[in-house]
Design goal:
Layout: E1 8-9, E2 21-23, E3 33-37, H1 39-44, H2 52-59, E4 73-75, E5 79-81, E6 84-86, E7 96-101, E8 107-113, E9 128-129, H3 130-145, E10 152-163, E11 172-181, H4 187-195, H5 199-213, H6 222-247, E12 249-250, E13 272-273, H7 297-311, H8 318-325, H9 328-343, H10 353-370, H11 374-380, H12 388-392, H13 403-412, H14 438-451, H15 455-471
Antiparallel strand pairs: 1-7, 2-4, 3-10, 5-6, 7-8, 8-11, 9-11, 10-11, 12-13
Helix pairs in contact: 3-15, 4-5, 4-7, 5-6, 6-7, 6-8, 6-9, 7-8, 10-13
């Protein structure tokens, strides 16, 4: 048996009881070809010493990890999908496989995508295309590099089946993905119990959420704990929304079942990264009204928080819940500002809040009017005026010669570089930043689909890792 000295199993979810999940079995796949293994994430939960055979045993065949769940759990939840309530949701192609503590004591989940049918598959095959797995690995890697609190793509295994899909050329290759994430308690987990009028289960979910994710709130009356829990989720969600905006990221499907109580980003389907600052850019081809367009994401998150608050009315009066919800806008604005300064590599605490706000607004106004490359701008001006000479050599240099931008350059003098040593990193010796635009994703997928050539995929992950090391932004988890 493999010795795992730093592995700390802690399978807690069963404490909620059978109303919250269904025990399921993983699909039996004809092939098991390891395509991606996240060694850094594995190290964080003491699983990095697993050899490839043991890795496939646990994350392709889904044999239980030691002292963890003996059977995977398909979780039950409801949700508003594009603001229409759906009581027929749940883990339809995934399950909770294991829970363990990381080095900081956080309870983390290993969950799957593409692991087979469950009671909630609604006629689907419960599978994941290999392209979908590749896209998620890339998204989580880049979001982590850009400081977004995101789930980690832990493992990707090609499974040897041919899948038929309506939104990509078929038949197409199949895969199973394992994610490492901070909580599978979704807003929709609360909605399901409220819909079923199971106040007892709602109270159980509140107390479980506090005990496992916000233990400092374990005091006072139920109303106090409930209001405090909502405020924490509001603040975490505000930070998440701000981080997407500053990363130039469009999630695509911000339904209530795609947000969780720890403010961690997860579940990447039709995402996009902005080529330039385009407020109306959508990621999902089926988002005809632009409900989840780039600029509408903060509002969508707030709408979802209001739906979460509604489920908590049995335990706390409306005014107290509204007070918690009112924490969203100031938390969003503060995070938006702080994260913009972090992306620019500037120390922000030397100026007043109004000065910082005006500066941030002017930066984004310039990015929108000039249509400079979103990532190129932050790359060129990392460290502010410490990068002035470097920015003159940028492919976008002509855009920085305008009078509109001249005023911004002058204001860079007001802020010191937060980490001037970062500019010596090899990442900043390049002419262009690392990006993950849709054409790039499609191009590297074509290499895999047509020639089974993974070199472009591997090269992109190497470039993203270089970027992560250079930036080391906060809240990457």
């Amino acid at each position: 048996m493999t010795v795992l000295p730093n592995y700390r199993p802690d399978p807690r979810h069963r404490e909620l009881g059978d109303d919250f999940f269904d025990g399921v079995k993983a699909a039996q796949f004809p092939e098991h070809q390891l395509r991606y293994r996240n060694t850094r994430a594995a190290r964080s939960v003491g699983l990095d010493s697993l050899g490839d055979a043991a890795w496939l045993s646990h994350f392709a065949h889904f044999n239980p990890l030691p002292r963890n769940f003996e059977q995977p759990l398909s979780l039950r939840y409801h949700g508003h999908q594009f603001q229409h309530y759906n009581p027929d949701l749940g883990d339809g192609r995934g399950f909770l496989f294991a829970q363990q503590r990381d080095r900081d004591g956080r309870l983390l989940d290993l969950g799957t995508k593409g692991s087979g049918q469950t009671p909630w598959s609604r006629g689907g095959d419960g599978r994941l295309t290999l392209k979908g797995g590749v896209r998620e690995v890339l998204a989580t890697a880049l979001l982590e590099a850009l400081g977004v609190y995101t789930s980690k793509s832990f493992s990707l295994v090609e499974t040897g089946e041919q899948l038929v899909r309506g939104d990509e050329p078929s038949p197409t290759r199949s895969s199973v993905l394992v994610r490492l994430g901070h909580s599978h308690i979704r807003f929709g987990s609360f909605q399901r119990q409220a819909y079923l009028k199971r106040t007892d289960n709602l109270e159980k979910l509140v107390d479980y959420s506090i005990a496992q994710y916000y233990p400092e709130l374990q005091h006072g009356e139920l109303a106090d704990r409930t209001a405090a829990l909502l405020l924490r989720v509001v603040e975490a969600s505000a930070d998440l929304a701000a981080s997407w905006m500053v990363a130039g990221f469009v999630h695509g499907v911000l339904n209530t079942d795609n947000l969780n109580i720890t403010g961690e980003s997860f579940d990447y389907g039709p995402y996009r990264f902005l080529p330039t600052l385009e407020p109306g850019l959508t990621a999902a081809y089926f988002d005809h009204s632009g409900l989840y367009a780039y600029a509408r994401q903060p509002g969508a998150v707030m709408w979802n928080l209001e739906r979460l608050a509604e489920t908590l009315l049995p335990f706390c009066d409306k005014d107290r819940l509204l007070k918690s919800l009112h924490g969203y806008e100031p938390a969003l604005n503060a995070a938006y500002q702080d994260r913009t300064f972090a992306r620019l590599g500037l120390a922000a605490d030397s100026r007043s809040t109004s000065d910082r706000t005006d500066f941030v607004n002017d930066v984004y106004a310039f990015m929108h009017s000039s249509q400079v490359g979103f990532e190129q701008f932050f790359f060129d001006w990392y460290g502010g005026n410490a990068s002035r000479d470097r920015a003159k050599r940028s492919p976008a240099a002509a855009m920085y010669e305008t009078a509109e931008f001249g005023a911004i350059v002058d204001r860079f003098d007001d802020y010191e570089p937060a980490n001037p040593d970062a500019l010596a990193h090899s990442y900043f010796q390049q002419e262009r930043p690392c990006t993950l635009l849709i054409d790039e994703v499609e191009s590297l997928w074509d290499e895999i689909a047509q020639r089974d050539d993974w070199s472009a995929f591997d090269a992109k992950l190497t470039a993203i890792e270089m970027q992560r090391e250079a930036l080391l932004l906060p809240r990457t988890g």
